[in-house]
Amino acid sequence: MTLLDLARLLVRRAWVLVAVPVVMGATVFVLTQGQPQTYSAHTTLYTGLVSGYEGDDSDGVDYHAVKSAFDNLIGTVEARSTLKTVALRMLAQRVAAPDSAAAPLRPRTRTQLRKILPDSLRRALAPMTTARAEQSLRTALGSHPALQEAILSGTTPFSVPRLRSHLNVQRVGNSDLLEMRYTAPDPALCRQTLHLLVKEIKTRRERRQRQQVGDVVSFFADQVDSARRQLNNRVADLRDFGVRNEIINYQEQTKAIAQARQRVARDLQQARTRLQAAQSARDSLGARMDANLARLRSNESVLRLRRTLSDLSAKQALQTEGEVPEGTGLQRRIDTLRTRLSDELRRLYRLNHSRSGLSGTRIVESWLQRVLAVTEANARVGMLEERLASFQERYRTLAPLGSQLSGIKREVDIAENQYLELLHSLNQARLKRKMETQSTLRVVDPPIVPTEPAPTNRLFLVAGSAGAGLVLALGAVLALFLLDGTLRTPRRAEERTGLPLATAYPVHPETPDDAEAEPLDRVETVLDAQLLRALQTQDPSMGREDAAPDVLLVTSTRRTEGKTYVAQRLCAELVGEAYRVLHLSPHDGDESTAGMDVRTYDTDRPAAALTERVEAVRRQNDHDLVVVEIPALVERALPVGLAQHIRATLLVARADRRWARADAHALRSLQSALDADPLLVLNGTSLDALDALVGQVPRPRSLLRRRLKRWLRFEYRSPLPFSS
């Protein structure tokens, strides 16, 4: 459906779109005429929950706690017990003697009050004070079912459900203010209800503050003390573990031991390398010594001096590592022993030269230096091996302590977290107690008796009902349009039948005037030309050959589809194109005109009569075209003998009917007998639907309507046919 189709549909059903909203709006307007007036009063309270009653916010504001406090306060206001107390107190004030402060009630409210309270009870309460009357009413709830029903489940202004449903309590933004608004049919009750409600809230809040003894704070204080003791115990365990295992900083200590062990291992490798080099040099010189020199190495005095010198050299090697702090005399002792050893070797040495020609003294001194170097290297290797073993032992001792230390630290962290959480909860509890004890409700805007009734929603209801009626009407119109199964438009006719459209003819008004007749004639002339062009497009050589005349079939699937009308217009158009036309009609009476003959055939036996008649006409060859009109296909099938002579077929269908299964079956039978598909002629089409074929159908239209129609069809420049 296009925008233009939608616009046409809405215009055709404009009366529905107007009538339904008007009727629904008028109905609601009438039904709401007796709607009672209501009055509304409000009051504003300062709570002090955000900044404190004195504006002290030095400790900061916990907005979550503030929100919870406001929610609790609003819940207290809307509580059933609170509203029950307010309802009983209102009744007590209205029936007790000292009621001069209460504004007078309206007659309807006084009538409701008399229905709630029996005469006996009202007379008994009249001399009492308000407090005693309230207590008596509370006691009477158990013995007066009517009073209990009126208070707890009634619909009067004195009932708890009525108070709850017409009471609105909310916080004003993020401020300390709380606004309460109440609506009632009696202005005196609006003010009285809010006044008593504020008074009851103050009383309940003060009572709760007095009864609050700080149990939560005490509980958290005890928990904090216990958590502190546990934390101290865990810290002491960690300290004792470090002292017992000589651990100050486990990570740094293990890192330092590992680095030192690596450094000692590297030094040990270097010392072993130097030892091997010294031993090789010593052995090399020893191999050069002769027998006399060799004997010197085993001399008792020489061996004694070598051992002493080796010990001192070992001490000197340890001193270089900082393990043996000795004085400066160690080096002098070593030098002295070396001198004594050299003198002893010279004394014992009897030869002046060795076997290799070197000086014996020089060989002995060189050999002695290598011996001392080996001794010092041995001492250093031994010392480094001991230190490496010590580091490894210390590392093996510290390694398993890491997991124990991690467990102790984890216990310390858990104890610390528990302590901090409990400490935070304690501070929150203290803050909450401080807010609740410091905040006192104050009336900023006291309630007053309203003088003007509250605006009603009558206009809104009327407008809403009218809008709902419009939506309902639109939905109904669109639903009927979408559920419409008629052929209706040329496009839908092609979709439903599956046939190409040749043309469509409009609906003729029953009593057309001259202003309508002339445009319709112009439109039909164009449609006749379209019909002829469709036939010529399907068969360009139709009627132009010298052979026997071509046969054009005009039929329909049902009766009263307009076959005769279409056949007559086709014949007239063909005659206008200089064809010699014969119209074979099942209707009685022959009417011939210039260029066109009209003949009938026997409808009692149409198959044989029609076939014989057509064959006789073709043999005579006095015409160019033969237009054959046959009855509806659902009643009589196409004559078999006639099918072989048919050149083109026109299937006429009315636009205001459905395309049923019988129509489709008859069409399939026709298609099976013909060589080419029929052309569809839609009869009785609305003028709006013809716009798709001929442009804008000439009808009286305003300039605005013509422009709107062009815009809906997205036509902005090109002129339309029949626009003048």
How are the SSEs placed, and which strands pair?
Blueprint: H1 3-12, H2 14-31, E1 39-46, H3 63-77, H4 80-95, H5 107-116, H6 119-125, H7 130-140, H8 145-152, H9 160-165, E2 167-171, E3 177-184, H10 187-211, H11 215-244, H12 250-288, H13 291-297, H14 300-320, H15 329-348, H16 360-398, H17 401-438, E4 442-445, H18 458-483, H19 490-497, E5 501-506, H20 514-538, E6 550-556, H21 563-576, E7 581-585, E8 596-600, H22 606-620, E9 625-629, H23 640-643, E10 646-654, H24 661-673, E11 679-685, H25 687-694, H26 703-712
Parallel strand pairs: 5-11, 6-9, 6-10, 7-8, 7-9, 10-11
Antiparallel strand pairs: 1-3, 1-4, 2-3
- Quickly give the structural class: alpha/beta
Largest sheet: 7 strands, parallel
Q: Report the total helices.
A: 26
Residue share in helices? 55-70%
Low-confidence stretches: 53-58, 350-358, 716-724
The end-to-end span amounts to 28 Å
Question: Strand-residue fraction?
Answer: 5-15%
**Average residue pLDDT:** 77
Number of strands: 11
* Main sheet: strand order: 5-11-10-6-9-7-8
What's the structural domain tally?
4
Shape: flat
- Gyration radius (Cα, Å) is 61 Å
